[in-house]
Structure formats: C-alpha cells, structure tokens
Amino acid sequence: SYELTQPPSVSVSPGQTARITCSGDALPKQYAYWYQQKPGQAPVLVIYKDSERPSGIPERFSGSSSGTTVTLTISGVQAEDEADYYCQSADSSGTHYVFGTGTKVTVL
Amino acid sequence: QLQLQESGPGLVKPSETLSLTCTVSGGSISSSSYYWGWIRQPPGKGLEWIGSIYYSGSTYYNPSLKSRVTISVDTSKNQFSLKLSSVTAADTAVYYCARLPSAVAGTGTDYWGQGTLVTVSS
Fold first, then answer.
1. What are phi and psi of B68, to 5 degrees?
2. CA distance A58 to A61
3. Which of A99, A107, B40, B97 could staple B22 via S-S, CB 3.0–4.6 A?
4. Which residues of chain A have pLDDT under 70?
5. Residues of chain A contacting B39 with CB distance shorter than 8 Å
6. What's residue A65's pLDDT?
7. Residue A42 and residue B108: Cβ atoms within 8 Å?
C-alpha cells in the first residue's frame, strides 16, 4: 500500500527554522496537505495544495514541493509551534488518501 | 461556520460492530464539491484514513480495512455514518469525521469533528 514517510522528530530553538519533509512516490501527481496537532486536539490544516496557507494560519508556515518530496517550513519558530505535524496526500488514482508517519516538533 | 460532530458508543466489545454517526451543521453534506470521511488515531499513534463518501453514496475505503468497513450517507439528516465490524483491541482509537480535500474547491481536510474515543474491551 502507498506510504508517506516523515522524520520522527525535529528539534529547533526559538526563532530558528524548522523543516519537515514528507516523501512519497505519487507526490509529483497529487497535492500534499499539512496538519498541526496538539495534544488532545483535532488536527488543524496549515498548508493545502502543497504551498497554500489557509486564512488564519501565520505567515511563518510555508510549503514547497520538489519531485517526490514535499516540505513544511516553519520560519521563526515559536514555543506555540511545538506539536505533531502530519502530511496527507492521495495515491496515484487520487481516490485513496494516506497520512504521513508524523513528525514531533520540539522547541528547545 | 461548518461544524461536524461524532456520536456513538464509547465502548464496544471484541468481535462486535463499531457504529458512529457524524452530524454536519452549518452547511450541506450534499455539496457537489466535497467528499466526507472518517479518520482514526490510536492512542499515542498517527492518523489513519478509514474511508470517504460522496453525497451520492460513492465510497472509497482504506484497503487494510475494506473487508470490515461500511460508510453510508443520509442526506435528509445531513449525516454520514461508519460501521466497522469484527473489532479487536487494535481498533481502539479516537475516531474523527471530517470534510476531505477537494480538487474542485481547492481545499484540504479543513473541517474536523472534535473526535470520539472508542475503546474495544470486554
């Protein structure tokens, strides 16, 4: 079955830049979406269509795509950004979704 | 503002069927732009897409769960439902209903229910 691979963890100091990658064979054909999840809460969409930011999401969140890898970048990380982050996309048919393995961002 | 709310038993016995309903308010489930879906998250683990449904009843299921999953829609009640049969402890999870990404509208999974914990135990 189709899989999206993320690093298990990323650690970053306040004010620095965090980059989270997500790799999958169908990413050149399918959009990627990114979600932030804090303990006990439902996920929140932070990036859609690879690089678009929903209203209300801070500008420090950005997304990019290159080949089979998409990247979520958090510039000027703040303590409140400490959370789990998941990518989501679809398989090559576009009908079956999958989530990435998840990345825990720790703000030092 | 669109809102989704899961409802159903929080405790299910092994080998029985888990049944949940998602009620959508503040918008119509019959919108032609969107699929609706179920997503689950076992305690301490990641997110797993269970399946999707269109207002017409068209469905797609996670291949790993397909033999046990049925998702249905009731447009008259603005609801969609999940049934997962022959459950085991591995099905213990927080279950979310959500509005899934739309190629037409250009959105992601932008609306989620609050999630409901379902525990499989005798």
1. -115, -5
2. 6
3. B97
4. none
5. 99
6. 97
7. no
